[in-house]
Amino acid sequence: QVQFVESGGGLVQAGGSLRLSCVTSGSIFSTNTIGWYRQAPGKKRESVAFIFSGGGTSYEPSVKGRFIISRDNDKSTVYLQMNSLTVEDTAVYYCNSPSNNNWGQGTQVTVSS
Strand 10-13 relative to strand 107-112: parallel, antiparallel, unpaired? Predict the structure, then answer.
């Protein structure tokens, strides 16, 4: 029943940038860790970055230094700023709480060479 809505995906050339947004209910957003995940064709879903309720962040090695996760509790929104995109970043991106097993539709990010 916990819902997350992702947006901001699209088609971009390698080296470009995109900013993804994720919204959920205010009560969930303000107290929970929120993560970005992605699933590329033929691969399992993997975590990308997390932002904790206190504001701390963590990143997977493959995106560290290129992606920035942030949150705005007033807007119940988590962002993922993606820079220096590569073809390997192509995937459907999802946001979720790590404890939630219900996944939304995600947003498609396609990076072309």
Answer: parallel
